[in-house]
């Protein structure tokens, strides 16, 4: 029976190895998917505003003085003096408004905005954002946001129960901001431009340069460091770098990956790169587990007797020392699939695998970098 079980396991492992061997060794990508172009980037915008029209789910003005001050300032700008008045409205909330200014965003174009409650508001459902300037890192206003909110969650409560789904204190306004200021950047007039690799690597940078030079038939691309490839505009493109970028962004290259093991201790997630290799090493794992179970029994006296009802404790202690765990040998130069199969054969969970990988690295048998998140 045991022999038949091991034969089935070996057959399944062999099928997995053959299946993965049929797949391509590495995935190729377009240049536009693995690099960023110098100057073509988003810019973050932020603003502070007020949401009105809430159904009693807004900020408590007594607990959020910034909401009270903002409401007073807004009403005074509209010609209403409320400095000495007592305001107890719960239909208004102070919010932070964020947005991304896209590259080459033109004046008058619209962008989406995100709205998040700043005070003790319970829900922004049904609210409308008032005119809110959105500022960049330089303090200048680049967009103006306003409009009704779309909330992805809701909250309801009664005297004895409440229910909340999603996050009712945040929402979005599709096309809720108008761009008022453009960021000047004249890409078409540049004679050189840099490509920035999203995952810096010497080999990948060189492969990108070789692919571009092979397409154009002249050395216009040069890798200057692991994260940068510099392009020089050839004369045949008539001084327009956009034409050059359009031609090369569809080129296919094969990114090179470092040997790395990424571990997230908090969630038990392990990601092992394709190039990870190990030297010959023997691995064993065993845990001492002590399980204590309480099963109290109630002892009652016979009817019409003078006895008392008592609880009799019963404790069961079970000790598991992991003696059934065997020593496994992981051979040198195994592939990623074989390494995973070898570790899975030990019957280990993610937590134990994390400890084993770190121990193999400490022994000098893991030819990879371990990154703990």
TrEMBL record:
InterPro entries: Flag_FlgI (IPR001782). It holds the Pfam family FlgI. One of its GO terms (cellular component) is bacterial-type flagellum basal body, distal rod, P ring. One of its GO terms (biological process) is bacterial-type flagellum-dependent cell motility. It is found in: Bacterial flagellum basal body. GO terms for molecular function: structural molecule activity. Keywords: Bacterial flagellum, Cell projection, Cilium, Flagellum, Periplasm, Signal. Residues 1-27 form the signal peptide. The basal body constitutes a major portion of the flagellar organelle and consists of four rings (L,P,S, and M) mounted on a central rod. Assembles around the rod to form the L-ring and probably protects the motor/basal body from shearing forces during rotation. Belongs to the FlgI family. PANTHER family: FLAGELLAR P-RING PERIPLASMIC PROTEIN FLGI, FLAGELLAR P-RING PROTEIN. This is Flagellar P-ring protein. It comes from Methylobrevis albus. The gene is flgI.
């Amino acid at each position: 029976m045991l022999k038949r079980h091991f034969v089935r396991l070996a057959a399944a492992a062999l099928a997995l190895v053959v299946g993965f061997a049929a797949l391509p060794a590495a995935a190729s990508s377009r240049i536009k998917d693995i690099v960023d172009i110098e100057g073509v980037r988003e810019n973050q915008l932020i603003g502070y505003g007020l949401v009105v029209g809430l159904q009693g789910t807004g900020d408590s003005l007594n607990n959020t003085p910034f909401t009270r001050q903002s409401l007073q300032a807004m009403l005074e700008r509209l010609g209403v003096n409320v400095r000495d008045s007592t305001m107890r409205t719960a239909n208004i909330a102070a919010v932070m408004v964020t947005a991304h200014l896209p590259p080459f965003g033109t004046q008058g174009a619209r962008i989406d905005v995100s709205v998040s409650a700043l005070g003790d508001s319970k829900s922004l459902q049904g609210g409308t954002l008032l005119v809110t300037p959105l500022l960049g890192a330089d303090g200048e206003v680049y967009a103006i946001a306003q409009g009704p909110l779309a909330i992805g969650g809701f909250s309801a409560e009664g005297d004895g129960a409440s229910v909340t789904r999603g996050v009712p204190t945040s929402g979005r306004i599709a096309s809720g901001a108008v761009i008022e200021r453009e960021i000047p950047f004249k890409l078409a007039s540049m004679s050189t431009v840099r490509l920035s690799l999203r995952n810096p690597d010497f080999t990948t940078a060189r492969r990108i340069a070789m692919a571009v030079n092979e397409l154009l038939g002249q050395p216009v691309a040069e890798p200057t460091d692991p994260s940068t490839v510099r392009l020089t505009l050839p004369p045949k493109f008539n001084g327009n770098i956009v034409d050059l970028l359009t031609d090369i962004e569809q080129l296919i290259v094969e990114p090179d990956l470092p040997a790395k093991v990424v571990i997230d201790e908090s969630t038990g997630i392990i990601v092992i790169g394709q190039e990870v290799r190990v030297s010959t090493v023997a691995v064993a794992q065993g845990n001492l587990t002590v399980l204590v179970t309480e099963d109290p029994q109630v002892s009652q006296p016979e009817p019409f007797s003078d006895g008392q009802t008592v609880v009799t404790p019963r404790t069961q202690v079970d000790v598991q020392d992991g003696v059934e765990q065997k020593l496994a040998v992981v051979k040198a130069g195994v592939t990623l699939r074989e390494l995973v199969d070898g570790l899975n054969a030990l019957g280990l969970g993610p937590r134990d695998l994390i400890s084993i990988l770190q121990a193999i690295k400490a022994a000098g048998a893991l030819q990879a970098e371990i990154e703990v998140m």
